[in-house]
Amino acid sequence: MGKGKLIIVSAPSGSGKSTIVNWLMQEHPEMKLSFSISCTSRAPRGIEQNGVEYFFLTPEEFKEKIQNDEFLEYEEVYENRFYGTLKSQVEHQAEAGQNVVFDVDVKGGVNIKRFYGDKALSLFIQPPSIEELRRRLEGRGTDTPEAIEQRLAKAEYELTFAPQFDHIVVNDDLQAAKEETLRLVSDFLSNES
């Protein structure tokens, strides 16, 4: 069985990244896509489960893994709120022949691409505008107004990273963004490298 390939998908919060990635994974099982399960020090949201959406660690456990250089990439998004990808988890999944999908923040995406180079495809899902992003975040109903303002400020900064990705997919029309992502991923997976 061949080694799996790596697909990095990053975007500002609320751009539709998770919706697109989940659609790709559910509707296209032939691609053998499998999530890279990241670690986070935040509490689970809703029905999230440890080892499924994330590995939930305490800030102390997270810092210990950083000290041991166990992360491919990690980010302290807010004070003591970490996200990161364990090297061992990615290697394990790729060795099993899975095409590993990274649903990561923008800096993490840039770091993983830098680490793996041509072995990874990096996609940036871009919202049509900051105003549209505000509408989507408010529509979710999961964040306080303060948190939404924080996310929007972060999104403006994150948009400056878009040129460092292999491709930018503007999510203006969700179906069109899904189809474009599918085409880019299919092309990448079918290329022998």
How are the secondary structure elements laid out?
Layout: E1 6-10, H1 17-27, E2 33-35, E3 38-40, E4 54-56, H2 59-67, E5 71-78, E6 81-86, H3 87-95, E7 99-104, H4 106-116, E8 120-126, H5 130-140, H6 145-158, E9 167-170, H7 174-190
Parallel strand pairs: 1-7, 1-8, 2-7, 3-4, 8-9
Antiparallel strand pairs: 3-6, 5-6
Helix pairs in contact: 1-7, 5-6
Question: Can you put this structure into words, describing what you see?
Answer:
The protein has seven helices and nine strands. The strands form two sheets. A five-stranded parallel sheet has the order 2-7-1-8-9, sandwiched between helices. Strands 4-3-6-5 form a four-stranded mixed sheet, with helices on both faces. α1 crosses α7 and α5 runs antiparallel to α6. The protein is globular, with a radius of gyration of 16 Å. The two termini are 15 Å apart.
| Largest sheet report | 5 strands, parallel
What is the CA-atom radius of gyration, in angstroms? 16 Å
**What topology, given as strand order, has the largest sheet?**
2-7-1-8-9
Number of contiguous helices:
7
- Helical/strand content category: alpha/beta
Strand content: 15-25%
Task: Tell me, rounded to a whole number, the average pLDDT.
Answer: 91
| Rough outline | globular
Low-confidence stretches: none
What is shown here, in short?
The protein is built from seven helices and nine strands, in the order E-H-E-E-E-H-E-E-H-E-H-E-H-H-E-H. With 193 residues, it is of the alpha/beta class.
Can you give keywords for this protein?
193 residues, five-stranded parallel beta sheet
